[in-house]
Amino acid sequence: MKKIAFVFTHVPHGSSGGREGLDAVLATSALTEEIGLFFLSDGVFQLLPGQQPDQVLMRNYIATFGILALYDIEQCFICTDSMSERGINQDAVLVINAIRLNQQQMHEHLSGYDVVLTF
What we know:
Shape: globular
Order of helices and strands: EHEEHEHE
EC number: 2.8.1.-
Keywords: Transferase
InterPro entries: DsrEFH-like (IPR027396), Sulphur_relay_DsrE/F-like (IPR003787), Sulphur_relay_TusC/DsrF (IPR017462)
Pfam families: DsrE
Protein name: Sulfurtransferase complex subunit TusC
Largest sheet: 5 strands, parallel
């Protein structure tokens, strides 16, 4: 069974990439259990609670990340270097329980996946 990584690198609002990525994750979970989610660069904003997408006329899908556990998707990682670069506290509460790794650790974990999809 192939290991599939989903890498989120864009802010959650202004494009449909985050929502499309989440939809792809949920659909893929029916085919394999070897899924990892990686949030780096501006993708770290995907996991911040309290966002108000309706203010920019976008749908709120951020809370949907909370159902990942129901799909047995537990390998979720967030880049602490990206968080720091964007002024996000290392101890910030996130919408999911993501493992916090530095940039080097993120790349090491990603190298163990057969397929990498970026959103």
